[in-house]
Design a protein that fits this description.
The chain has 84 residues and is an alpha+beta fold. The chain contains 2 helices and 4 strands. The chain has one domain.
Length: 84
């Protein structure tokens, strides 16, 4: 997965640190018309978004996190690196 991220770093907006990464990821979800709570990640180390390619990524400290969306009663898991 790291190679996917590396190939999109050039020209991307990249921020580090949990607070700013959360803020930027929520802003991007809003821009894209997606639910702002779609990525309930913890301890985010890095967030990146390459507007030219449309590629985004988040790297969190934990290798994997599970979250239950109560309204839909579904549990999902997120890897340490999440990208789309």
């Amino acid at each position: 997965m790291a190679s996917q991220i590396e190939s999109h770093r050039s020209g991307a907006e990249i921020v580090n640190g949990d607070a700013i990464c959360r803020k930027k990821s929520i802003e991007l979800l809003g821009e894209l018309g997606l639910p702002r709570g779609l990525l309930p990640l913890e301890d985010i180390e890095e967030f990146g978004y390459n507007r030219d390619t449309g590629f985004m990524w988040l790297v969190q400290r934990k290798k994997k996190i599970e979250h239950t969306f109560k309204k839909i009663k579904q549990t999902v898991s997120y890897a340490g690196e999440v990208w789309a």
